[in-house]
Amino acid sequence: MSMKRRKFIILSTLSGLGLAGLSKLLHRQITQSSAANSTDGVNFVSESGLATSTDTLRNSEQPLLRFVSLADTGTGATGQYAVAAAMTRFHQLNPYDLAVLAGDNIYNDGEIEKIGAVFEQPYQGLLQRGVKFQAVLGNHDIRTDNGEPQVRYPGFNMQGRYYTFRRGDVQFFALDTNHNADWTNQLPWLDKELSRSDAPWKVVVGHHQMYSSGHYGVNHELIKKLTPLFQQYGVQLYINGHDHTYERTHPLNGTTYLTCGAGAGLRPVGRSKWTAHSASQLSFAAYEVYRDRLILRGISTDHRVFDRAVIPLKSA
Please, how many CA atoms are within 13 Å of residue 303, restricted to the half-sphere of its CB? Predict the structure, then answer.
């Protein structure tokens, strides 16, 4: 077919479509392009195959703090090593020096003599790179000497059964949420520490869930104890384990609740009215804190970013 004939056919086709047809075609292409760039379930992977920060790729702004969290880890089994390996590889592209360990650090009964097999060996690469773990006690951890050997263990950096520490603009409040926790003293302490904090970002960490679509469900007792303080003092994030799943809530009265208990094993998880994303997937959570927002990502053992959320500084 001659070039002139081809041009005639193309021009005739476009004319037949008309402006309305072209408009629909362009709209469909834009919609498809937007869907392809959606962050839900998209594989944010660099050329080397590692999960990376798309926000850092788009501009040169550096986060004030980068950290990770995980829980229900201390099995010493394949699942724990897989998550540890993913954390180590993530560190290579996105260096961090803080890991929040939200309880059940040693299975099954918190025996400190297992610390090499369930902590020091799995996270050896991260420990050698200077990553500092900050732990809280889970229900399995208190089965031996009420968890006191873990409180004293230097690698967990616990300053007591409950304590606070600060990293720049972020203040963390680590709690003992176990059935025998000393709430008579812990709750007034938390009230006092939150009230005196001038940190823009406030993150509370405990082992037990508040809002979960997994095995343990809703923890009404803990909600009653803690959420009034979260509202009063503007806590943006609560991190927990206990359910062996990943689940992120929509902001509830200004607070996002994140279950990251898939650090070694899994249980099924559903969805509830508060659920923004849930997955039964071996994983850890990674965070980048900026002055006006916190970017949260769920990262699986195949290095996929399977969940992403942006929490504004004022998330109410």
Answer: 19
> What is the secondary structure of the chain as a DSSP string?
--HHHHHHHHHHHHHHHHHHHHHHHHHHHHHHHHHHT-STT---B-TTS-B--HHHHHS-PPPSEEEEEE-S-TT-SHHHHHHHHHHHHHHHHS---EEEE-S--STTT--GGGHIIIIITTTHHHHHTTPEEEE---TTGGGTGGGHHHHH-GGGT-SSSSEEEEETTEEEEE---STT--HHHHHHHHHHHHHH---SEEEEE-SS-SS-SSSS---HHHHHHHHHHHHHHT--EEEE-SSSSEEEEPPBTTBEEEEE--SS--------TTEEEEE---EEEEEEE-SSEEEEEEEETT--EEEEEEEESS--
CA torsion sign for 230, 73, 67, 94 is: negative
Q: Are 126 and 155 in contact (CB under 8 A)?
A: no
Q: 2-20: b or e for each residue (b if 16 or more CB lie within 10 Å)?
A: eeeeeeeeeeeeeeeeeee
* pLDDT at residue 51, as a whole number: 56
Residue 33 to residue 46: CA distance in whole angstroms: 20
**Among positive and negative, which fits the CA dihedral 293, 299, 304, 306?**
negative
Nearest to 79 by CA among 89, 70, 69, 92: 70
235, HSE (Cβ side, Cα atoms, 13 Å) = 26
CA distance 238 to 259: 9
Query: What's the pTM value of the predicted model, to 2 decimals?
Result: 0.84
Q: Which fold has domain 63-312?
A: Purple Acid Phosphatase; chain A, domain 2 (3.60.21)
> Percentage of the chain surpassing pLDDT 90?
80
Residue 232, CB-side half-sphere exposure with 13 Å CA sphere? 13
Q: What is the pLDDT of residue 60?
A: 74
Query: Which pLDDT belongs to residue 314?
Result: 82
Residue 59: predicted pLDDT: 55
